[in-house]
C-alpha cells in the first residue's frame, strides 16, 4: 500500500506522455485558416477527405475527423504533415509550415475530433 501513490503517479505520467492529444498553446482559428489554405484542397474544408482534389488522388485523402486519424499521437501527425506519406499524394510541408504554425494546425486538427 505504501507504493500506491507512486504507482498512480507513474500511470498518470504514462497517460500524459502517450496521449494522442498533447497539443497545447495553439490558436484554433489560426490553425483553421492555415488548414483551409494548405490542406483543404484535398482534405476538404472540414477535414473529411472530400476536398476538390480528392477525386484525383489515389489513395484518397484521409478523413481527419475519423477515429483512426484522431487516435494518432501528435508526433505521428507531425511526421505525416512535415514529411509526407510515400506512395500517396500527401506531400511534405516541412518547408511551408513553421513550428508555431504547426502548433496552431495541430490544435485545429484536434478540434475536429467527433
3D architecture notes:
- This protein is mostly helical.
- It has six helices and no strands.
- The protein has helices spanning 4-18, 28-38, 40-43, 67-70, 74-83, 99-111.
- Helix 2 (28-38) crosses helix 6 (99-111).
Distance between the termini: 39 Å
Oligomer: single chain
CA radius of gyration is: 16 Å
Judged by helices, strands and strand pairing, the structural class is: mainly alpha
Helix content: 40-55%
Strand content: under 5%
Query: Ranges with pLDDT <50 over ≥5 residues?
Result: 4-23
Q: In DSSP terms, counting alpha (H) and pi (I) runs of 4 or more, how many helices?
A: 6
Mean pLDDT: 85
Instruction: Tell me the number of strands.
Output: 0
Largest sheet: none
| Gross geometry | globular
The SSE string, one letter per element, is HHHHHH
Task: Fill in the keyword field for this structure.
114 residues; mainly alpha; globular
What's the SSE blueprint?
Layout: H1 4-18, H2 28-38, H3 40-43, H4 67-70, H5 74-83, H6 99-111
Helix pairs in contact: 2-6
Brief rundown of the structure:
With 114 residues, the protein is mainly alpha-helical.
